[in-house]
Every structure is written in C-alpha cells, then in structure tokens.
Structure prediction request, 364 residues.
Amino acid sequence: MAEIVGGFLLPHDPLIASAPDAPSPEQKKAVMDAFATVSRRIAELKVDTVIVVGDDHYTVFGPHCIPRALIAIGDIEGPAEPWLGLPRLPFQNNQALAQHIMQHGFDNGVDWAIAKDITLDHSTSIPIHYTLSQDSDVKTIPVYINSGVEPVISNRRSYQIGENMRDAINSWQGNERVAIFGTGGLSHWVGMPQMGAVNIEWDKTVLEAIRVGDVEQLIAMTDSDVLEQSGNGALEIKNWITALGFMGDCRGEIIEYQAVHEWVCGCGFVELAVA
Amino acid sequence: MSMFSIERALWEIAGSRELAGQFLQDPDSLLGSYQLSDEEQALIKSKDVLAMADQQVSSMLLMLFWMAVSGGDQSLPEYMQRMNTPRQG
Prediction:
C-alpha cells in the first residue's frame, strides 16, 4: 500500500530564478541551502512521488476560467514564464496515482478541474526545479489551489482537499512513497503598492503555529486580515494549509526563514512530521 | 465599468508578445476589438495602474501587463512609483 512519508513547506518565489543575485550572498546561500536540505530529505525518505501544491498567478489560467482546485493527471512541463530564465522541460507525472486522486475526489466530494496536458507556472516549477534534479526518478503530481486570483478558495476547503488527497493515498494499492510540497508565501505584496515589504512578525506567527501543530490558528485567519497585514501573496498559506490537511496531525520543523526584500518575500522552509 | 472585461484585455495583452506589440503601435485599434467602453479603453491606454487597481483589477495582473508593455522587469521601479503616487483630488 502507498505510504505518506513526508511533507514540506517552501517558497516558489519566481525572483529566486529571475534575479538570483539580488539579495546578499548570505541570504541567497541560506535559501539555496534550504532547498538543498529539502532535496536531501526527499532522498533520505526514499520519496518516489511528490504532490506539489501551487497556485496560478494569472499566468496559466485567465479571466475566462479560474479553477478552484485542479490536478494535473497527464503530461506536464514547465515553467511557462520565459522571464524566469529557466529552460522549459518536461517533468515526470505519476499519472496513475494522479488519476486515482482525481477519481477519489470525484467519488468523495472534490470536483477537481483536470489538466490533461499543462505547462506549469513558477508556483510548481520552481520547487520542482530546485529540489529534484533532472535525472531524478522522483515523479510529481501538480495540484493548483486558487489562492492567487480573487475569488480565492477558503482556508477550510483547502484543508479538506488535503485530507481528501490523504485518503486517496491511503486507498491506493501501489507501493509509492509519497511526499507533499505546500508552496508559496509567506508575506508578500504582488504588484501592490507595498511590494518589497515583508511582515516578519506575521511570518513568524505562521511558522510558530505550524511548529506546534496548530493548523486551526491558520484556518481561522480571515482573508481580509491576511491581505491587509501581509499582502495578496500571503494568501498562499492556503497552499500550505492544503499540505497540512494532507499530513493530518503533524508538527513542523523549521528548516529556514529569511525575509528577503530583494525577492519581495518572506521565504520559509518547513519539514512536516506526523505527530 | 466592468473590471472583468478590463482583466480579459490585460490578460491577453500580457500573455502575447504580438498583442503587446499591437498595443504599443496602435492601442486604439487593438482595444477597439474588445467589448470595452470608451472609458475603459482610455483607462487601459493610459496604463494608469493605480486607477485600475482602484477598480479592483488584480494587482498581479496589472504588474504582468505593465511589464509586457513597458519594458519588462526593468520598468518595475516606474510601476511602483505609479502605484504609490497619491491620487488626484
């Protein structure tokens, strides 16, 4: 039977790729070392499939169609944005497991939108690029939660979708060793007048809630408060909440936190362990 | 004023080098092909990102549109200046 062996929360800031030398060498090294730590842990845990939870940024999807929750079940490549400076490459999808998660959702209350063939944006491509080498055998299953474009998904629903995916893994007859990435955040103001600011106090409040396993504190945060205190990009904690729902009762070990103004973002890295 | 129709135009222009080029060369012709009022067309043509943000247009999309028609990420300081310019009146 398939097994959930790990969970990680990490940034997907596009400027990490497009402006790699913008921050101080010390901050850049801290962030790159954190990506390397996640990569190392993926290997140590013998993970063979990573569910990567991101959100679109009006890049893949537009005003004509904004999926609330989407799973990629077929061919995948990325990134979509040429300005990242990364080569667009195919990624391996665990199509059989992705389709099982899809069907489990259909049968148990998640009406997924489906991508049969998709070019991923930075929210999923960046974490994959910086943690899984091109010659890695680790497969990915991209999931998009709409935390980026109004009207956004609720925190509670994000958590439920994570739970639904966990149940799907537990009902899968394969032998996969599965991990999840909740990507994005922490505080940042994308395109807003405050872009470049970082709310360190708010970021650390979020990280502490995860460290002690208090996901209800995060779910109770209202979108309007998050938007006001920490920017539109901070709503991406919904991606993190999805990962927390997937892991269930868990605690977080903080790998790294850096407030990187040059990358306009609070960059947090956490490993999740079942309590 | 429809935020939705403005977002559609901005999204298509931001995602297409060809449309961004048309916007720069002949914005009236391009914007005239959308279901936009004269006022909406003028607003997009002005690249007044703060005014569009006031209309609840996605700031994420405004930034992408701005970069597509103003010289990429090198133009972001001017974008930020416009977003932080006190409103008239």
